[in-house]
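Batch manifest, entry 17 of 40.
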Amino acid sequence: MPNTWIFQGNPKIWDVRAGVNQLETMNWGVRQFKNEIRLDDDVFIWISGREAGIVALATVTSPPGEHVDSAAETALYPGGPPPKFRGKQLRVYLRIDKVLTRRITRLELLQHPTLSDLTVLTMPRGTNFRVSARQAQELRSIADER
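Output type: C-alpha cells
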C-alpha cells in the first residue's frame, strides 16, 4: 500500500498554484523521509503562508534521485531560483492528478477532529510530511467534494 504525504511549497519562492495548473508533471524536493518516499505514493500539495492549504493531489512517479528543474519549472521562480534550489537536488517526480477548485484551508484542517494534528500544522517547518492512513482517508474525502 502506498504511503501518503503532504509536500509543502512556499509561494514566495516558487509559484505552486501556477505549477499545479500549468504542469502535468513536476519534480519536488525531498528534504525529509528520503528512504521512505516511494514510487506510487500519494501526495497532497500544500501552499504555505497566508493562503495556506492543500491545492492539489499528485502521485510520486519516480524514486528520490538527483534531478534538476525543467525550464518550465524554473520559470515559476519569481526572480529565478534561489541558490539552494539550483542544479541537481534530491527530488521526486510527481504527476498532478487533481487540482482542487477550492483549496482545503489551514483553518478547515485545524477545526477537523482527525486532521488538526497533521504535522504540517503542528510542526510546519519542512518540505515533506507523513500523513497517516486515517488522515489520508479524511483528506481524500474532502478533496473528492471539491
